[in-house]
Amino acid sequence: MGTRKLDRYQRQMIFYGLGEAGQRKLLASTVAIVGCGATGSVLANHLARAGVGHLRLIDRDYVELTNLHRQMLYDEEDRAAGLPKAVAAERHLRKVNSDIVIESVVADFNPGNALSLLEGVDLALDGSDNFEARYLLNDACIRLGIPWVYTGVVSSYGMTATFVPEKAAAKIGREMTGCLQCALGPEPATGGPTCDTAGVLGPAVGVLASLSAGEAIKLLSGNGEINRGLITVDIWDNSFDMFELAGRRSDCPACVKGELRFLEAQVASRSAVLCGRNAVQISAPHARVDLKKIAERLTKLGEVRQNPYLMRAKVDGYEITLFPDGRAIIKGTEDPDLARSLYARYIGI
Q1: Separation between Cα atoms, residue 32 and residue 58, nearest integer Å
Q2: Nearest to 337 by CA among 276, 273, 293
Q3: Whole-number average pLDDT of the chain
Q4: Pairing state between β 148-154 and 328-331
Q5: Band of residue 193 on the pLDDT scale cut at 50, 70, 90
Q6: What is the structure's pLDDT at 266?
Q7: Measured distance CA(128)–CA(182) in Å, rounded
Q8: How would you classify residue 210: left for phi > 0, otherwise alpha for psi between -120 and 50, otherwise beta?
Q9: pTM for this one?
Q10: What is the pLDDT of residue 288?
Q11: What domains does the chain contain, in order, with CATH numbers?
């Protein structure tokens, strides 16, 4: 990239820890952001402005009204248009930085596609909203040798941690760390508070995601001291703490024994209750659907709206949002059996 195009990063390059060499490394890097909700949108915004050369934005969901108080990339027009978050994020970020590559992927991050979605990236960032996805991301990054940064926020507090798998350490010249399972145990936590049950403050998201974006810049540029512990922040109690992580556990099933159970899980048609939303997601791996044909069929039964990315139908008291990969979010129930029945009845796969 010529000097003229570097001009936009001038205030960043004169920072002693980065310089022109560090900036050029950012521009040559590819980052995957898994989840483009609250934390993911802040991460994407920071890294696009910082000049990361290629951003891959992965998200399964669409913009809703209740997102707008904390998901900084989206607006009321995105919600009215029913845009997927990844697509809306790409549109907004292209206006911020037209010199970089921004790739939107509307997909559910799952064991069947995790490796392909992370193929060729230098760094993965957690913008997800659940620990099942994070444990899967942990497995995939161990397999591929990719460093990644965990960010979790709920209520007024959150935490961030940076993980460098063994295969990644040599490539990037950093010391290896433990993995997510070393830090939090072999199984995802269940029953804890979520944004839908405990709420969330936008400034808390901004603080934690900004710390994680800083970690990304350090990892990609090869400069600075990365976070080797667990940083926690509570903006309501004015607390900022850093807890030391013990490092790699000798009995860790994932990074020591190589048992990548979340990555190697069988992928079949599956359902997941979306906490606090009175909705169930139905996934149909390897399916492809013709949104236009299904929309034409369902128009006879209720209100139907469609754009290039999804179709939304209100039928029989339920709202069905269908994506081209056959995945659907069915609002109006938290019963997976009923959701699968509605899917079979109206989508027919």
Answers
A1: 7
A2: 273
A3: 92
A4: unpaired
A5: confident
A6: 57
A7: 20
A8: alpha
A9: 0.88
A10: 77
A11: 3-244 (3.40.50.720), 270-346 (3.30.310.10)
Q: pLDDT (tens digit, 9 = 90+) per residue, 256-292?
A: 999 999 999 854 457 777 766 889 998 876 667 889 9
What angle separates helix 85-96 from helix 38-50, to the nearest 10 degrees? 30
Structure tokens at 276: 């606090």
Give the catalytic positions in this structure: 195
Other Cβ atoms closer than 10 A to 279: 20
Instruction: Give dist(CA 334, CA 342) in Å, integer.
Output: 12
Mean pLDDT of the region 97-125:
96
Residue-wise pLDDT for 88-107, tens only, equals 999 999 999 999 999 999 99
Residue showing tokens 């056959």: 326
Amino acid at residue number 158: G
Cβ contact 183:160 at 8 Å: no
Cα gap 299→313, rounded to integer Å = 8
